[in-house]
């Protein structure tokens, strides 16, 4: 009886201590500050779905970075267009930001197709003088079999879908000319490997970093059932992937790590409450990586 009372007392004491621990104030409760030499430009990939539900596809990522004290921008450009068209748009955005805020250089973080856009821009313009580094996230540097799957649809259906997406893209962003089907053709493995890559080598003055991502088949990470078919399709042809781009295709320059996030989770679309910490940790890690490289350069 006495032993039982002592056990109950210890349990209550532990519960009280746990409760009081929750009330304990953190010394610095605000988000940790990341110090970079230059601001960040976040470049979005192919598509306009995200722009329907938020100011820009990379807006949430941008706001997260600003919470960590980083000067960051996430503008919109033409959502459905060929690489060369989109690249010219990113060049304009860099020039606009540089002129308005007098930035000496900018760290570019490019998601998905934007990684190819920026590689093209660095080879076909003088913008490399204003770019400190290029970090790509889930970019199809060797193409994606998903593009080839899309292009297997009947030609007439392709044409009608292309017209619909072009209309949608031109309505949302009338400053640029959309070409939805032409853009998909440039994302095939054959085009990227045999045409794009040979014509767009890395610029010798730019530091290139990359992140891949994998969920679903071949991993322990969950996947929205809507994307299960394409996730399995890419897995069969290329291996682990984020349901749009394979891990191997996303590796370019210095490959930093493989993130446990789907392609859309990376830009905070359909991210559950349970998986939000992984999204936040990933992007904080990207900033830390750029910060570490800054310190190495300074030393």
The level of helicity is: 40-55%
Strand content: 5-15%
State the low-pLDDT regions, or none: 295-299
Instruction: Give the total of domains.
Output: 1
CATH superfamily annotation: Alpha/Beta hydrolase fold, catalytic domain
SSE class: alpha/beta
**Order of strands, widest sheet:** 2-1-3-4-5-6
User: Mind telling me the C-alpha Rg?
Assistant: 22 Å
Task: Give a brief outline of the structure.
The chain has one domain: 3-Layer(aba) Sandwich (Rossmann fold). The protein is of the alpha/beta class and 299 residues long.
Structural key phrases:
6-stranded parallel beta sheet, 299 residues, 11% strand, disordered C terminus, Rossmann fold, single chain, alpha/beta
Question: Would you kindly provide a written description of the structure presented here, covering whatever features stand out?
Answer:
This protein is of the alpha/beta class and 299 residues long. It has one domain (31-298): Alpha/Beta hydrolase fold, catalytic domain (Rossmann fold, 3-Layer(aba) Sandwich). The protein has helices spanning 2-23, 49-53, 59-67, 83-101, 114-124, 145-150, 155-172, 180-185, 189-199, 228-238, 247-250, 276-298; strands at residues 40-43, 72-73, 106-111, 131-137, 207-213, 254-259. Strands 2-1-3-4-5-6 form a six-stranded parallel beta sheet, sandwiched between helices. β3, α5 (114-124) and β4 (131-137) form a beta-alpha-beta unit. The radius of gyration is 22 Å and the shape is globular. The relative contact order is 0.13.
């Amino acid at each position: 009886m006495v032993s039982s009372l002592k056990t109950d007392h210890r349990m209550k004491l532990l519960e009280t201590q746990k409760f009081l621990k929750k009330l304990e104030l953190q010394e610095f409760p605000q988000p940790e500050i990341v110090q970079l030499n230059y601001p960040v430009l976040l470049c979005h990939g192919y598509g306009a779905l995200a722009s329907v539900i938020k100011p820009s596809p990379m807006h949430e990522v941008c706001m997260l970075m600003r919470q960590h004290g980083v000067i960051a921008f996430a503008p919109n450009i033409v959502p459905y267009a060929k690489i060369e068209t989109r690249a010219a748009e990113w060049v304009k955005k860099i020039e606009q930001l540089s002129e308005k805020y007098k930035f000496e250089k900018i760290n570019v973080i490019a998601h998905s197709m934007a990684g190819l856009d920026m590689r093209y821009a660095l080879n076909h313009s003088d913008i490399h003088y204003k770019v400190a580094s290029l970090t790509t996230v889930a970019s199809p540097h060797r193409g994606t079999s998903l593009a080839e799957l899309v292009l297997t649809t009947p030609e007439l259906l392709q044409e009608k879908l292309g017209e619909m997406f072009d209309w949608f893209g031109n309505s949302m962003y009338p400053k640029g000319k959309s070409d939805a089907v032409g853009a998909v053709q440039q994302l095939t493995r054959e085009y990227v490997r045999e045409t794009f890559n040979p014509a767009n080598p890395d610029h010798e003055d730019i530091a290139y970093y990359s992140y891949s991502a994998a969920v679903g088949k071949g991993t322990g990470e969950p996947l929205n059932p809507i994307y299960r078919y394409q996730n399995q399709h890419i897995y069969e042809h290329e291996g682990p992937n984020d349901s749009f781009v394979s891990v191997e295709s996303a590796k370019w320059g210095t490959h930093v790590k493989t993130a446990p996030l789907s392609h859309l989770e990376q830009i905070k679309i359909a991210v559950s409450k349970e998986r939000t910490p992984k999204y936040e940790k990933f992007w904080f890690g990207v900033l830390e990586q750029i910060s570490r490289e800054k310190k190495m350069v300074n030393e």
